[in-house]
Amino acid sequence: MLVIGFDPSFIDTLVRAENEKGELSETLPQAGHHHRSSNVLRVAGGNGVNIAAALTKLGIPVNLVVPSNPVFDSLLEERDLRCAYRIHDQVNDTVALQWAPGEIQFNAVTSTLNRDHFTSEVYHLWGKSKIQVSVNWALNPDADLWISSLWLASCGWEYDRITSLSDTELIEAAIGESDLQQPFLLEPGSLKDHRQNANLKRLLSTISRASFEFYPVFSCNEEEKDEFAEMHFPTTIVHTSKLVTEYSSKGKRLFEVPELSNIQTFVGAGDAFIAGLLYKLYMQGRLDPDYAISVAQEHMAGTL
Hints:
UDP-N-acetylmuramoyl-L-alanine:D-glutamate ligase
């Protein structure tokens, strides 16, 4: 079983700007003009939800642990998902404007995950996952306290011991703990603008020094690789629209990304890539970026 989520939820309003042929527009209209060929869709989103949806399509059993409410539950059902454990009932909003060159996302982050939400149920569900997945740090205002709690659990700390610490003690304990005891994959996103940037970078530095087989696996894009250049994880996957690079103790491997012409959506492509990595890790205990690329491209083409 994979238990996925543990990150903020978003209702994604996808605005697809199309031309008269139903293809993604190359340009956007000028300010003040109407775009009369748009499609607008609301879906249950967030990195954890997107990963869970892709894994479900790939046939992997998933328990989803995220914030949810009745509206979000109904949108989850449309993606063949259900929330196995509702962390709380506050859901954020994202508007994603899609056009041929890519997408523009507008995130309204009003809800958070913090140590108050780290219940014994969360602790036990996190521990049950065959691979522990931590994503979306950048969109959680209290990520330092939330991730510190999860990280200590990954290092074998008991729930009562974690929850007995003050906020300062919790963060310092996590930064000082590198005895990872379970498979761990993370893609935190850029932290440059996060209000707890210093604490989170210290925590990432600690995680990078942990070692459990070839874990932790760290995934990022080109810009994030530069941001975290001083950290050397056991395994790092850098993904771009044209090339995926894997860095590990065995050296560097390059994987070209085939050009895709019939793109239906960009939203969730990175999450589908993570799902592809997780599929092979779960089924075969190995990394296969080539397969992950194919899953991401199927998602973008609408054929997954």
